[in-house]
Every structure is written in C-alpha cells, then in structure tokens.
Amino acid sequence: MTEEIKYSISVGRVARIIREMSAEEKRYLAYLVPELREVEPLKPPEQPLRPSEEFLEQLRQEILEARGGVPPSDDEPFIGGLTRGEFYRLPEEEQEAIWDKVWAQAEAEVEKSTEADYREHPVKPDALIAGQKRRP
User: How far apart are CA 131 and CA 121, in angstroms?
Assistant: First the structure.
C-alpha cells in the first residue's frame, strides 16, 4: 500500500499551468527554478493525491470569515450553473470536468484581457519608469 501524499491545492494548479507551457517556457522555468532539476520525481501514487487536512481546514475558515460567519448552503448557486448540493452529488470525474472547463474559460479571459495591457510599445532610449528621476 502506498503512503498517501498530502499537498496544497496550488500544486495541482501549478501542474496544470506547466502542462500547458511550450517547451521553451518549460526550459525557462527550469532556468528560473533550478531546484526543479535537482529533485527526483515521485513514483505516481496508487491513490489520487489529496489536499492536506490542515490546508482544507484553513480554507474552510477563510471561506466562513469571508461569508461573515454564515456557512454555505447546498441551495446556493455554485459552479457551472449548479448549486453546491447538485455539484457535490455528481461523480468526482464530472466535478473535475466542470472545474477544468471553468478554469479554462477563466484563463482564456485573463489571457485576452492582459494581451492588450502587455503589448510592446516603442520607447525612447532615455525613457524613465514612472516615478523614476533622472540622474544628474
């Protein structure tokens, strides 16, 4: 029997992002984070990875605080046009598919909105960053 591996949810999200990177982006990531080249990969677990109980409890507390102490209801709208109750009654595979779809839509929206913000513009050689002062 394989020992269950605990991780934070962000590890799964980072993995999804890395899978979508081009080979060049992955090489640059390895350059930026050389520690990734030094670790030996884990043997894939026989059981799916699960977030740690500590992380889940922290997340529950943050959600409860954000909601002013009112716990979520199964009748509330949740994700993909479903209520919390409807969503959590679905098989895990369907839940994952809905999350993946919503995540992909959100990433596409962010990509579209940031493309305009980060276009290259011609700059004069003596241009300064906002708030920077010229040297005497």
Answer: 19
